[in-house]
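Lecture notes, continued. The same structure-token format from the folding unit now serves as the input rather than the output. Read the line below as a description of shape only.
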């Protein structure tokens, strides 16, 4: 039986939400193997002088635990 573990990470990007998600997976994959999926729990944007400056995401990353 496969065991799946979930970790929650926070990531940001000045380019967009997609890039913030990619950054989350890229950084997590440096220490976590067997990543299966990413669930975006929350999205936010930081605003300065009436313009969006950065996008932030809270992601739950699921990965299979080695047997």
């Amino acid at each position: 039986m496969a065991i799946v573990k979930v970790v929650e990470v926070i990531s940001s990007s000045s380019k967009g939400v997609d890039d913030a998600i990619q950054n989350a997976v890229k950084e997590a994959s440096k220490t976590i193997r067997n990543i299966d999926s990413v669930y975006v729990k929350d999205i936010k944007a930081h605003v300065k002088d009436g313009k969006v400056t950065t996008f932030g995401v809270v992601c739950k990353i699921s990965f299979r635990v080695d047997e």
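Point for the exam: The domain at 3-65 is CATH 3.30.1660.10 (Dodecin subunit-like).
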